[in-house]
Amino acid sequence: MASDINYQDGPDLSRRDESPAEDEPIHSPASLRQTEYERIGGRTGSSFSQTIIHLLKGNIGTGLLGLPLAVKNAGLVVGPLSLLALGIVAVHCMNLLVKCAHHLSAKMGKPFLSYGDAVEYGMENVSWLSRHSLWGRRVVNLFLNVTQLGFCCVYFVFLSDNVKQVVETANVTTVNCHNNETAVIVPSYDSRLYMLFFLPFIIVLVFIRNLKYLVPLSFVANISMCVSLVLIYYYCLTNIPYPINLPLAGRGVDYPLFFGTAIFAFEGIGVVLPLENKMQNPRNFTTVLYLGMGIVTTLYITLGTIGYIGFGEHIRGSITLNLPLCWLYQTVKLLYSFGIYITYALQFYVSAEILIPPAVARCGPRWALMVDLGIRVALVGLTCALAILIPELDLVISLVGSVSSSALALIIPPLLQILTFHNEDMKLWVMVKDIGISLIGFVGFVAGTYISIQEIVARNSSRHNGTHLQLL
Fold this sequence. Notes:
Elements: H1 48-59, H2 62-65, H3 67-74, H4 78-108, H5 115-123, H6 127-130, H7 133-168, H8 191-206, H9 215-238, H10 255-265, H11 272-277, H12 285-311, H13 327-361, H14 365-389, H15 393-421, H16 428-471
Helix pairs in contact: 1-12, 3-4, 3-10, 3-12, 4-5, 4-12, 4-15, 5-7, 5-15, 7-8, 7-13, 7-14, 7-15, 8-14, 9-13, 10-15, 10-16, 13-14, 15-16
């Protein structure tokens, strides 16, 4: 579920105290000193519990449903352990991002910094990088756009796959949910035609330019997704086979696919700073972060593990595609699909707010609305076209995760800490640790991207060869 936070909200925080290092604060003479967080205009904003809910929503989406396949690629033991390790590292990097933003906002006299702001000001701390600091913001915005539009591509594939399965199995759908037998489906249209069917409905949805008008739909979507997840967990927990005869470790060549899918699931890095900015008491955000992401990581590990155990080698790119062909679980697929449909607009909003304002500013007021709507149509069309080119849900998730999520969640935050504190008695072991995390993220970035593209090419070739044989 995507967060319904407005990424362009005005600043809420005034000066902050810093805790730049991991073990003790570093006192910078240029920093603004204060022992308490304060909020401009009083203590208004999200409460502790509301912030946790937003954090959960920002990290629970289609990536969660793909984790059983990720565990299959890593193995029954290696998969969950890798998810735990990746969760710890990802949350640590989120915390680094918050600490760096605190320190830089105080140093620059800014009440709030976005992810791009933090990287730009961090690069200004290094003399030979200061001239190119603007490129830091641009690179972050590029990865944010790739990530958010990548999510939108995944949503197109998810919607088409799940609705297609419901349509094709409608004639064999029963009220008996205890058996998950293989059924003879009635072939319908290609999944890519379903994507084209959804295209006009999604275009109409993104024409809603103010998020407040999406609040009622977002509320219903969140309820439907929550109900669906409860039923998915219930089915997985009550249908664990015995004995369990699955490999404890997967093939090494498949591990990059695990990495891409798993890091894609940790999709909340973009909401961390806006969430902290909107809290009534930002001093408690670290507690919110660790508690909320602890819950998220637990959900990831449990569903990934029990989903793989329940469906074994037959697990698919989304666990919803493995559910029994009974009306209850067919309804689950439709409910989750509705939630993803509404979530598309929320994820799309982030890229729209980055790309549309500069374009509108270059044209006159007479053409502003037309340019705005035209860009929205073009971006939706782009995500649909990319989804049609790669109609494999698991590979799209892995590719997006490897390319952009790894950069935003693992590579950039540790490097940002080095840029921010390298001239303030930064301990050597901290620098070594940051470089190590970034290198791990970079290796995952390269290997995951390469293997994902290789698999995409192989499957497309196989599909084309199969189509050619059928024509013959």
